[in-house]
Design goal:
- Helix 9 runs antiparallel to helix 10 and helix 13 packs across helix 14.
- The longest helix has 42 residues.
- The protein is 66% helix and 2% strand.
- Strands 1-2 form a two-stranded antiparallel ribbon.
- By secondary structure, it is mainly alpha-helical.
- The radius of gyration is 22 Å and the shape is globular.
- It has 14 helices and two strands, in the order ββαααααααααααααα.
């Protein structure tokens, strides 16, 4: 069991004598939560993401010599699953390093990618990729090259390798930051952390990240292709991961990430202690959202058009989960909400 250290406290009765008082139960519970998330959830998942990126870079390089896209495609899908999980705790290094855009810009702009390939030097290096706009690189751009015909060869394959190398570097930078300093900063929030001056600040970062994860599922991954944001007809081309037809799995990974941040010694440990009924409602709503996802055909880009009702139900169930966290959990735990989830509820 993680414990809260003794802290010096001056009291009026001490007459100048330095006394020591232990943290209260609430302080200890929050510190245990942050340590659990830092050590058991976030840092290991970021390390897995980085390793998956290494595998992808190697598989993409092999593609250029073998002409066989299967291993690279499998590696891309595996990386995508890890990325989807880490979206539930996308705060700290991924924000500080401005990595989200270069790694995961949607929707794909194939014309921008093609122009970048046409304008590339004979030897495509990291400096060239680094100088490109976000719409020409990252996982979506590499997905386009790996899954949309034709199988990349020549300069197109060289460009794909450079993209995979850039993805590997960026994922490694995020993982290294968590390993070297940020896990400790979150673990020690309010106890010497230069990043989180209080335990509440650390908790705020965690809760806001879970809300943002669910918000993106609702607004970007579902509302946008459903046409809800503009009142237009459903458009399957706006579904993320459409070239690999992996949009369904993307959402499943996002829900997996939320579950990792919430269950066991995660946020549930605080919520259940204060309001067991709310904790059960969250667990039940997550299960309902998963059921709604299974009711959607595996091809999400087809389903938004052909099975719009099922996709809309999925959207509504994920949004109900988001609202439980944003409205009920945030209030229960005294969380200061960020401004990114600005839909007004």
């Amino acid at each position: 069991m993680r414990s809260c250290p003794l802290r010096p406290v001056l009291t009026a009765l001490s007459l100048g004598t330095l006394l020591f008082a232990a943290c209260g139960p609430a302080d200890s519970a929050r510190r245990d939560l942050l340590a659990y998330l830092a050590d058991e959830v976030i840092e290991p998942r970021q390390a897995e993401l980085a390793q998956a990126a290494v595998t992808l870079a190697g598989a993409t390089r092999s593609l250029c010599s073998s002409g066989e896209p299967g291993p690279a495609r499998t590696a891309w899908l595996a990386l995508r699953a890890h990325w989807g999980v880490t979206a539930a705790f996308a705060f700290g290094p991924v924000i500080d390093q401005a990595q989200a855009g270069p790694l995961d810009y949607w929707p794909v702009r194939s014309d921008t990618i093609e122009a970048a390939i046409t304008g590339a030097p004979a030897a495509i290096d990291g400096a060239y990729i680094d100088g490109l706009g976000t719409s020409a690189k990252g996982m979506p751009a590499l997905e386009y090259l790996l899954f949309a015909p034709p199988t990349p060869t020549g300069p197109r394959c060289d460009y794909a390798v450079a993209l995979a190398d850039d993805i590997e570097r960026r994922c490694a930078e995020i993982a290294a930051a968590w390993h070297d300093e940020h896990a400790e900063a979150l673990r020690n929030a309010g106890h010497g952390s230069a990043v989180y001056p209080s335990e509440q600040a650390g908790l705020d970062a965690v809760v806001n990240a879970t809300i943002e994860n669910l918000y993106r599922v609702v607004k970007t991954k579902l509302d946008r292709p459903l046409g809800n944001l503009t009142g237009s007809d459903p458009d399957g081309s706006l579904v993320e991961s459409r070239f690999s037809d992996n949009g369904h799995n993307d959402i499943a990974a996002n829900l997996d990430g939320f579950e990792r941040a919430y269950v066991h010694e995660g946020l549930a440990s605080l919520v259940a202690a204060k309001n067991p009924d709310l904790d059960q409602r969250i667990v039940d709503q997550l299960a309902t959202a998963r059921i709604a996802l299974t009711a959607v055909p595996r091809s999400l880009q087809d389903a938004v058009v052909d099975q719009r009702g099922a996709v809309q139900t999925l959207r509504d169930e994920v949004d109900a989960l988001r609202r439980l966290i944003k409205l009920d959990v945030a209030s229960l735990l005294g969380v200061t909400l960020s401004l990114s989830d600005n839909d007004g509820d």
